[in-house]
Specification:
A hairpin with a 5-residue loop joins strand 1 and strand 2. The chain is an all-beta fold.
Length: 85
C-alpha cells in the first residue's frame, strides 16, 4: 500500500497544559516483481501444442509483461514466439 496517512496525538505535562499535533506520513510505492509458477505442458505425441506462457504470470503493478527464453527443451522441439503472448 502507498499514499499519505496522518494521525494526531496530544502531549500533556500532567497539569493543565496539553499540546496537540498532527503527523503526516508519505508512503511511496515500490516496484512489485512479477509472480510466475512452474508449469508443465501435457505432452501430445506426434502433434504440436500451443501454450501461452504469460497466462500463469501476474504482476501486482499491472505492468506489461514479456517472456524471454532462457533455456530450451531437453526432448522435442520448441518454437518460441515471443510476439504471440
Amino acid at each position: 500500500l502507498n499514499g499519505t496517512d496522518t494521525f494526531t496525538y496530544k502531549a500533556s505535562d500532567g497539569a493543565a497544559e496539553t499540546a496537540f499535533t498532527t503527523v503526516t506520513i508519505n508512503v511511496t510505492s515500490i516496484e512489485d516483481v512479477p509472480v510466475a509458477a512452474n508449469d508443465t505442458i501435457p505432452p501430445a505425441k506426434d502433434t504440436s501444442v500451443a501454450y501461452s506462457l504469460l497466462n500463469r504470470v501476474s504482476d501486482g503493478d499491472g505492468d506489461t509483461l514479456t517472456a524471454t527464453l532462457l533455456s530450451s527443451t531437453q526432448h522435442g522441439t520448441l518454437q518460441f514466439l515471443a510476439s504471440q503472448f
